[in-house]
Design brief:
414 residues; alpha+beta; Aminopeptidase; Alpha-Beta Plaits; 2 domains; nine-stranded mixed β-sheet
Length: 414
């Protein structure tokens, strides 16, 4: 184990080569799920995996599994991975780092000629971002039976209406393998933190103990369209003014539940969206997060109460629909210990951390022991073209991943 090392330069070069697919002017990537660019990234990943001697399969929702055989093929595989799709203005590392760190683990095992007791699989999950198709974390959610397969295949593009199933077929990734329903010995996911905590604490590795709970909503506000000139201010039923106050109320809910709460409105549509017409309809989204399910429930109640009060005061109709929810998720103690042991073996500065974002590991934790490894990202910035991580941090995270996977893959016979 002391001589088992990943090749940090090779990992970095692979990250940079993948980043050329969908590259943007500011140094990021736009590789939306199931587009031609996503296909190109998937094709490259599969080529690299096959060159590493893996058997590659694709399931019916497009998840890609690259398998390195173990000495005992009857043992459930140790999995690692993340996603290849990005935000419209995404960075080089979000998702891609976890997939290619997993690939680098396989390459390092090949370099060392080391056979593990259990098979090791690297997974690229479909549509983690949820940017083109909603909800996010589709592929891992289908694998974990959180979502029905048919529901996923029927989900429409948020703008054009094309379906997941149709786009999978169009790009040639409507695989034949069953979705989920098989044993997984353990699942590890390496990822950039997407926040500033590690960098601020001057730590190279985050040992992720769990992920905070999330609630997503769709909010519909209906007032009355009217002419901007002849309609007196006191007689207006302005859906946009009401929505603006509700959005501000959402922000206050987040501030009222500090230090760990987050509350965000990230998408707004206004109708008729005309300069001289009082808006009659507004649609916006709400995202509430907290590591405590009890506090998250309190935030939910406060958000609803405040919005209902505003709707009554401004004489508009309000409809709040629950869109997506998952509870706070603790990770597996043994997987956390394996990550800690991998940190100690590498001699890295580390700290425990709770994930502020949702990741595929959250759904895998429902069907298998799971853990995560975070590395810093510059300024805590992610979902942004200027997202950045260092070569050294990427290498360190992959080394911890390698250590944890080998320990786990070789303990399943005990």
């Amino acid at each position: 184990m002391d001589n088992l090392r990943i090749d940090g330069d090779r990992l970095w070069e692979s990250l940079m080569e993948l980043a050329r697919i969908g590259a943007t002017e500011k140094g990021g990537v736009c590789r939306l799920a199931l587009t031609d660019l996503d296909k190109e990234g998937r094709d490259l990943f599969i080529r690299w995996c096959e060159e590493a001697g893996c058997t590659v399969s694709v399931d019916r929702v497009g998840n890609i599994f690259a398998r390195r055989p173990g000495l005992d093929e009857n043992l459930p595989p140790v999995m690692t991975g993340s996603h290849l799709d990005s935000q419209p203005t995404g960075g080089k590392f979000d998702g891609a780092y976890g997939v290619l760190a997993g690939l680098e683990v396989l390459r390092a095992l090949n370099d060392a000629g080391l056979e593990t007791d259990a098979p090791v699989e690297v997974v690229a999950w479909t549509n983690e971002e949820g940017s083109r198709f909603s909800p996010p974390m589709m592929g891992s959610g289908a694998f974990a039976k959180v979502f029905d397969e048919s529901y996923i295949l029927e989900r429409p593009d948020n703008v054009t209406g094309e379906t997941v199933g149709g786009e999978l077929k169009r790009i040639g990734y409507d695989g034949a393998q069953d979705v989920g329903g098989r044993d997984v010995g353990a699942y590890f996911e390496a990822h950039i933190e997407q926040g500033p905590i590690l960098e601020d604490a001057e730590k190279m590795i985050g040992v992720v103990t769990g992920a905070q709970g999330q609630r997503w909503y769709e909010v519909f506000v209906t007032g009355q369209e009217a002419h901007a000139g002849p309609t007196p201010m006191p007689l207006r039923r302005d859906a946009l003014v009401a929505s603006a106050r509700m959005i501000d109320a959402v922000n206050k809910v987040g501030h009222d539940h500090l230090p760990n709460a987050c509350a965000t409105c990230g998408f707004v549509e206004v109708k008729p969206n005309s300069r001289n017409t009082i808006p009659g309809e507004v649609f916006f989204t709400v995202d509430l997060r907290h590591p405590s399910d009890e506090v998250l429930a309190n935030m939910d109640a406060a958000f609803r109460k405040r919005c209902q009060k505003i709707a009554a005061e401004l004489n508009v109709e309000l409809r709040i629909e629950d869109f997506w929810h998952f509870p706070a998720t603790p990770f597996d103690d043994a997987c956390i210990d394996a990550v800690r042991a991998g940190v100690e073996r590498g001699g890295y500065k580390a700290m425990d951390i709770v994930s502020g974002a949702g990741h595929d590991a959250v759904y895998l934790a429902r069907v298998a022991p799971a853990g995560m490894i975070f590395i810093p990202c510059e300024g805590g910035i992610s979902h942004n073209e200027i997202e950045n991580a260092t070569r050294e941090d990427c290498a360190a995270g992959a080394q911890v991943l390698l250590n944890a996977i080998v320990a786990r893959a070789n303990r399943q016979t005990a």
